[in-house]
Design a protein that fits this description.
Helix content of chain A: 40-55%
Largest sheet of chain A: 4 strands, antiparallel
Number of domains of chain B: 2
Oligomer: heterodimer
Distance between the termini of chain A: 25 Å
Radius of gyration of chain A: 26 Å
Largest sheet of chain B: 5 strands, mixed
Number of helices of chain B: 8
Helix content of chain B: 10-25%
Largest interface: A-B, 85 and 72 residues
Strand content of chain B: 5-15%
Number of helices of chain A: 19
CATH architecture of the largest domain in chain B: 2-Layer Sandwich
CATH class of the largest domain in chain B: Alpha Beta
Strand order of the largest sheet of chain A: 1-2-3-4
Number of strands of chain B: 7
Order of helices and strands of chain B: HHHEEHEEHEEHEHH
Order of helices and strands of chain A: EHHEEEHHHHHEEHHHHHHHHEEEHHHH
CATH topology of the largest domain in chain A: Cytochrome-c3 Hydrogenase, chain B
Amino acid sequence: MTTEFTFQDNAAKNASAGHLAAGALAAGHLPDDAPIFDTEKMSISMGPSHPSTHGVLRLQLELDGDNVTHCEPVIGYLHRGDEKIAENMTYNQFVPYTDRLDYLAPLANNVAYAIAVEQLAGLKVPPRCAAIRVLVAELARISSHLLGFGSFAMDTGAWTPFLYQFTEREKLYTLFEELAGARFTTSYTRIGGVARDLPEGWLQRVGGFCDQFLPRLEEMLAMLTRNKIFQDRTVGIAVISKEDALAYGLTGPNLRGSGIGFDLRKDKPYSGYEQYEFDVPVGSTGDCYDRYLCRGEEIRQSVRIVRQVIKTMPDGPWYAADTEEARRIFAPRKDKVLTKMEELINNFMIVTTGPQIPPGEAYFEAENPKGALGFYIVSKGGGVPWRMKIRSPSFCTLSILPKICKGAMMSDLVSILGSLDFVMGECDR
Amino acid sequence: MTAASTAASTAAPTVVSVAASTAVLTAAPVSISAATAGGIVAALREKFPQDADKITPRASADHPAINIPATAAVAILTHLRDAHGYDMLADLTAIDWAEGASPRFTVVWHLLSVASAPDASASGTSASDAHAKPGSYLRVAAGCANDAEPEMPSVAAIWPGANWHERETYDMFGITFTGHPDPRRILMWDGYPHHPLRKEFPLAGVEGELPDPEVAAETKTKLIAAPMAGGPFVASSGGLNIGENEPRAKDESWNENAEKPKAEGLKG
């Protein structure tokens, strides 16, 4: 943290200007018009290592007293060149990298990436695979939103919800571990399907989680929603108008908090979202409190979707049909690979040269917890993308900071950052 | 479970999987999806008669896509936002078609329609016909005229959110956005000499100085090329023979004991 301001020796200055007798200062009597403090703008760095910037974000602030007169986000501390890396490896090899974009919802990133590549390849996945993807994406949303409002509450001084939500997230991560073998970096989807079918009895355990989770969720939200301190810190703070939200490309709960009921799951359904009933919560004023309320309600709606998926989970294959066309894109089942020559060669080709994606370009956005995560893939044919752009919702969210932080109080910045719920791994890529 | 839902539920016609060169993608081959862009192309040609021959449908595996001339980009994009309802700039990026291709750099805007048409309740009116339905995307692309010093007009005045996207595109590709209010790097630091997403920039990175000379003097360290460069997991795009497609060491002149990639020869 750098601090740049000069300390003014006011007493000496005033004495030399003849405003003040030396004795008056000693006795504590100052004339009413005495210029005691010269006010100066102070420039400070908040971050990149600061608990409430949620990652390596640096805000270059210019303060006038407690008021922020200028706020410039400095990003790039977590830039790893994911897009460059993607141009140098096969489509399958990139799946683990998607875990590390929004690392609070890796399952949702896996799903978005797989659908983007399938859209380019023109590949259809069976209903069971689509339902599994919806299920895991919604569980990821619950987990991400829990941390989102938990850390938001912690930033505004409420410690308890954070501990409560971590307990619930722990249960979710145990479910993820059972499903994908990893708690955090799941890498669960594949081009054309998912890594493996659901474990025995897993759906019942997810249902059991939902049953015990809902009362706990209400408890957590009750601690904040009518909490006077929390309201004082969030109501009317950093109002984002509908026009600004659109102009800056805000998506997800940040867009809906501003009163625009746009949700890709409703307006551009993918992976069979159109079969499930759920509501899209919308804020009324667009302040920090509305964004919190939207996330809270979205968790309830996600539980609703999860329960519907459990009830209607179709049987059947969880990988795309093994046709002649598909043989160019994904490897055959392992039992065939290990017993048949043709399939063994096919498996070797897919592993070494990658899925043979036709030339063309495709853009797919998924409604992720942080907003719309997009993949723009340009293929010249072959197993490696020529160009892959990752459209990061956190990047767009942060670009509005200079606008909404201007004029805010310094202490409101933590509320604003908490309410926007961004992830630097995704912002910097 | 009767609903035949699939992940790739959009009408995604498979592009014929023959070897296609850059020219196939940047020119205007007729495909099914290009036809869906026909309405917009016709409307734009009518609105911008002087650029009519340069507004063409663009090959696409999913959404409607059009090519527009760079000179009219701001006017056309403003028109698409105001008259056609593409009110959000979902994404802005560029493609580097590598040295030798012309135009070498293509800037791509992805527009998204979020709000419904204002008169959507009065169905069947001609005004709402032009207005895109919420949730529809449009891909707009324009080639940069100058391959050595690419330029593109900035749309930050139309969508303030484009500000950061254009800074990133400048940072990664070196495309100057004319009229941009704050043309600085964003992910790399100010003063970084290269544009890393250009095709000639090696995956390993190149050796160079640390951004802060004080830190560099104190730690006596510098930027070093990543040890995995040219390693076993590097594959490349578009190759037709197996040897090129296979992930393998591409740059065999370099290993732990030999010379590291140098900054010379890279364009700044």
